[in-house]
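Interim report, section 4.2 (structural modelling).
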Amino acid sequence: MRLNPDHFWTYSEWLFQQGALFNGVLLAMILSVLGFLFGYIVSVFKHGPSEGFLKVSQIIGQLFTVDLPKMSARRIYAVAKLAVKESIRKKVLVLVGIFVVGMMFAGWYLDPNAEYPARLYISFVLTATTYLVLLMALFISCFSIPADIKSRTIYTITTKPVRPLELFLGRVFGFTAIGTFVLAIMGLLSYIFVVRGLDHDHEVVSLDPTGRSGETSFDTRHRHTFTLNAEGRGTTNEVKGHRHIVTKVGDKAVVGGPIDDLTARIPIYARGLSFTGRDGEKNEGYNVGYMSEYQKYIEGDSLSRAVWRFEGVDKTLFKDVILYDLTISAFRTYKGDIVTPVGGLIHFRSTDGRVKSEDEPFKVKEFQVDRRSVRTKLKGFIEDKPADLDFFNDIAADGSFEVVIRCQDRGQYLGMAAADIYLRPADLQFWWNFVKGYISIWLQMFIVICFGTMFSTFLSGPVAVIATVAALILGFFGFFVDDLVKNTSKGGGPIESLIRLPTQMGSQIELELGNEKLQSAIFMLDRGLVTAVSRLKDAVPNFSQLDTSNFVAYGYNIFGGLLGRHLTIAFCYFVLTALVSYFFLKTREMAA
Amino acid sequence: MATSTDLENRPSTYDNDPTKTIVETRNLGKVYRDFWGRKKVQALKSLDLEVRRGEIFGLLGPNGSGKSTTIKLMLGLLFPTQGRVFVFGKEATDVSKNERIGYLPEESYLYKFLNAEETLDFYGRLFDMPADVRRERIEKLIKMVKLEHARRRQLKEYSKGMTRRIGLAQALINEPEFLVLDEPTTGLDPLGTRDMKDLILRLRDEGKTILMCSHQLADVQDVCDRVAILHQGELKELGRVDSLLKIQDLTEIHASGLSEDTKRQIRDIIEKSGGKVDRMDNPTTTMEDLFLEIVKESEQRPGRRGGRGGN
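Predicted structure of the assembly:
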């Protein structure tokens, strides 16, 4: 899993600096105009142009003057309670049974030789829970109102003083309540499954004569080696993503339970990453034409460097050691010694460059997290003169410092991104991160319920299911529209493409119409259309963005800012679907 | 000259009418259309009628005559394609009018997985009633519709008559001023039918206004003050039941204890004064009255067979 810079935006950064608030308001305006136009066109067919306008305006007016102010919590609760009873009657709790059965047989299809069993176990339970809960949410939400209309029980509800929004909110809250209950049980079972499934013991099978190092037994398809310090304490090496604490008791060594497999690292990331080229001048980092634009590269055995700048690091979070993780990758321009990893040098320096630590060599551990540390008392240089340093007094006096990495091997490259180095002051409790992962699933379930209920206000059950699934799938293809907006796709916007197609004008050639005014008008119109479509794309949920299961599986804390963003997005969809449902329920003839 | 649109758009008479018209339809029409907007059927044509406060108003007509459509338009379950309908002086689509309405649909469309108490509690909440008021009303209504023994049973276990009774109870949960009953006696046995009719009359006496539609003409005759007869979506007759049913040139005398001689003298007098005796006989009771009397006697003297009539 790779963390992107957008993963660790704070909530306010996302809302204000990254334009989420602006985009949200813009989207709301576009949807309002489109909604009004749609309603007006439908109304014109029924009532004519002037009365149609009056009817649409009346409905909008009633929303704010009557239907919203006169909503009753008691009525919403009544409808919600009914939705819960209805779901129980539909035997949704059987789902928990299916889940339990699935877990009982999980051992058959979970690879026992997996390099990281914790990731596999966590991914399995989170994915299984997500699919089951989303399916449940889809079906209970899409079939409820249509079933009421079919059985005509809706007659006895809409002839009571029930407002359209109360009907929608009651259903959504009711289904969410039952979904939350199911999710909570699944979460608890999953947690027990993961913790118990990964728990194992080893025995010490060999201890060298000095009693300082040894080897454990081969259990659950792996063994460890270990070394002990003078006090007779130590840890094993890392195998399958975990270690064990080993303690010497008398002349025997005892191996404890696994550690480090279920973690939730709270990384402190750098505020920026800059590069210098092989000539020592600043550049953007080298692009090796490899994979994506995520990482940029520095060249080996040259002046090329990567510099991360950390700001405002709180020294009270660290005692004698600063733990940090590296996840950088290597790109080889020649094969060389394929067994030996590409090497690099790392040092820490003050932001003015006056004080720096000694270079520490390292070998790149590709495709895994390199857990490293630096002592707060370390050797280094003050204005190039050797000196004993204190990290937080000399290098990072105000909490700001820089980390510099060079590549040692000539002709080889090291690739890195802003998130490829982070400090690890402390870990979050795994169970709390696990709960956060389930909150993400809950949010996805909530959005499915909102969309399912919305579609069911004007479509039959099966069609509402298809519409909801279609909306979710559309969300995955939002990046096509992003390409259009960023102008990375050739051939222009919709109008320009419409001209290019019949005139057989290739997409590589500039559009030439011979009329500058017309051409700029087309460009402008295209820009407007593409921007509108890109905003509209945001009206459809993109579940891949809301999924945080990898954070849990790969042992990263799900940042509060990220969860806050997801909560905000879910709330916006809730408001959007509530408004659409209101208009459909308000204008629908229940007995037609 | 006022056009039909002018008449439709004039304000409702509810607020300035001393008799307080509860329901008022003006030139009301409904056309059902298919998905493409093509006309399928004209269910109701230019209906003008009023339901007045405190009366029992009957809607009569064969299947497809527009009775149910009229009721659904009044309740806001359908929207008119022509004309307007006011209930308590408000447009029928105004939700707030529902606070004063009770509705018993044709088939008691209720949630079968709820029991009687849960059903009434649910509908009580929809009227935003506090818990203590709900409890009190639920007790009263369950007693009234005689479902004390089945209050905790799911409605799916109810007989048709019991379902009808709980349906009526939900319609009365808010103590409505205006009660709409769609086929209220359907599925009820003669005892239940009589109870329902008694109840309707009692509710009228308590000051409620009742609109009912029924195929059971005898029921309508027994309880309704005024009726409207619809056929093929058109209003064919509207008026008081007693005046509509009165046969002007026939005279009916009910007397008891007359001898054959006296009867002959009466016949002579009628013929002398130019009248004609069509029939002079002992009247028969109705089957409903007979049935109810037998049941009543049976309850008083169990195990005894009645001794009416021949073989």
